[in-house]
Amino acid sequence: MTTPIRSEPLYRAADLRRIEAAAAAQPLMQRAGEAAADLATSLSRFEGGAVLILAGPGNNGGDAFVAARHLRQRGFAVSVVFLGEISRLPEDAAAAYRDFDDDGGSALEAIPSGPRWSLIVDGLFGIGLQRPVSGPFAAMVTAANALALRHHCPLLALDCPSGLDADTGRRCGETIRASHTITFIAGKPGLFTGDGPEYCGSITHAALDLHAERLAPPSARTIGSDLFAAWLRPRAKNTHKGSFGNAGVLGGASSMVGAVFLAGRAALKLGSGRVYLGLIDARAPALDPLQPELMLRRPEALLATALSALACGPGMGGSDEACELLLRACALELPLLLDADALNMLAREARLQEAVRARAHRGAVTLLTPHPTEAARLLAGDTAQVQADRAGAALELASRYRALAVLKGCGTIVAAPDGRWFVNTTGHPALATAGTGDVLSGMIVALLAQGWPGLEALLAAVHLHGAAAEERVASGCGPVGLTAGEIIDSARLCLNHCPPVSQPLDCAWPLARRARLLRSAWLVRVARRFACTPPCSSWPRCSFLPRSTRPPNTSAPISPYRCSSGRATWCTW
Ligand SMILES: NC(=O)C1=CN([C@@H]2O[C@H](COP(=O)(O)OP(=O)(O)OC[C@H]3O[C@@H](n4cnc5c(N)ncnc54)[C@H](O)[C@@H]3O)[C@@H](O)[C@H]2O)[C@@H](O)CC1
Ligand SMILES: [K+]
């Protein structure tokens, strides 16, 4: 079992414009179009087959014209449909059109009927989408989606699927449902969260010979195990259960005791030395017969226990008693995770909000893990608003409550009060079932109890939770009917197989970075010795990387996988 190793930079459109300006002298559109043509060639089902290319009124359309010219030269029967006025194309796109025209190509005004398409390419809109796709563009998008389905052919989106907001992952009107997306220069957050994963298909990155991070700091990052690898330490021989912390879970009002059991079992199996459960229901059992290692207590007794970290909320209900217990929990100086009913109480009780903010003043870590509806309550908005800008909502939560915030859902966002944010790329719709949030809470509190810092605990738990669901689905326990409890053993497996920093590393560039992390002079020397010269300008993943060490979700073709010496350096994840 392996999980995506490397965290990758993500850029919102405004930050990408800075990169584009810094690299304005370079023929980026030519490189983008050529990289797209390379991928299109490998995707097309027939050599020399009929390729439909939709070109829009901006530079995304320019990329499409460059790709069209290359595909024509490679013998494909290319039909380009262009809606708009050639005279109003931006400069680079107009030049791309002229090259295409000089080469014998011509642009059509409507999709020709007749050919059996072997590939459709969407070059209507990229990061310049300004409003919902409507009118003739919407008709074109609808037709392209329908043709791809009818002809069973791949639909390749250039930079991002037209209609998808690349910053937020929100659909804006009719949206291309791509089977593949080739994204240029760097990843965009909207490809990985909200509607993005559903509409992008398999994502390929074409760096266009740029190293984005050297030109502008990223807006965000995807979550890779490198972000928390420093905490994946082998267990020392001379340790005992006291070395791995005491995790507590508080909740379990009448008829909701199971939520605490799920969280407790997850905390135990993610490595907490001892796990204590505080059950509010006075008639709750005194033992979890399936997990007798768990220690069950009355809530007051739990709060008086010497805990290393505490999760509050699973099945907690919203009674006055629960609220008082939560206030007492906020007064504790340990890392405190609030989930589920604890978040609903936080949204409605000003006393709790004050108590949570006061924790930040004292330097006590608080973590919030809402799903979109809980986030909407905490922000006094509605779920649609939260989903329209998931990263914005997570950042607002983090800043308003001065806490680390996780916004769950497709492409979970992790945000810190200092403005850093991360997008998770693991996970599966099979997770949309009761209790998976309780399992996540248990995983987080387990890592906190073992001494992990709050941010790293969140990143690791979110990432492993998604990877565990993928593993369960791959082994046939889903997508239909996956249960929350089944994720726990897989999450344990994923954690135990996560490479700690001391394991062999797979690429010279991150090797240098990880070696610095270890602060080991010897490793730094080794890293320098094996580093690319010049360093790989791709994502940084070089051609000498053995195929077997590539990420497991590398489903898109990887044949044009070249190092910076090649024309188009790109990689797939
Ligand atoms: N500028 C650069 O250096 C590079 C740009 N590249 C490509 O250029 C794209 C960005 O180009 P642009 O900034 O020109 O933006 P787009 O090509 O994404 O679209 C902008 C154009 O579409 C129109 N438009 C926006 N939303 C519309 C809607 N809903 N209905 C109708 N018209 C709409 C705008 O008025 C404008 O004419 C990238 O996504 C990428 O594909 C690549 O070639 C790489 C290099
Ligand atoms: K596009």
From TrEMBL:
Coiled-coil residue windows: none
InterPro entries: Carbohydrate_kinase_pred_CS, CARKD, Nnr, Ribokinase-like, YjeF_N_dom, YjeF_N_dom_sf
Annotated positions binding (6S)-NADPHX: 59-63, 126-132, 159, 259, 315, 371, 438
The EC number(s) this enzyme carries: 4.2.1.136, 5.1.99.6
Family: Belongs to the NnrE/AIBP family. In the N-terminal section; belongs to the NnrE/AIBP family.
HAMAP family per UniProt: NADHX_dehydratase, NADHX_epimerase
Function in brief: Catalyzes the epimerization of the S- and R-forms of NAD(P)HX, a damaged form of NAD(P)H that is a result of enzymatic or heat-dependent hydration. This is a prerequisite for the S-specific NAD(P)H-hydrate dehydratase to allow the repair of both epimers of NAD(P)HX. Catalyzes the dehydration of the S-form of NAD(P)HX at the expense of ADP, which is converted to AMP. Together with NAD(P)HX epimerase, which catalyzes the epimerization of the S- and R-forms, the enzyme allows the repair of both epimers of NAD(P)HX, a damaged form of NAD(P)H that is a result of enzymatic or heat-dependent hydration.
Protein name: Bifunctional NAD(P)H-hydrate repair enzyme
Species: Accumulibacter regalis
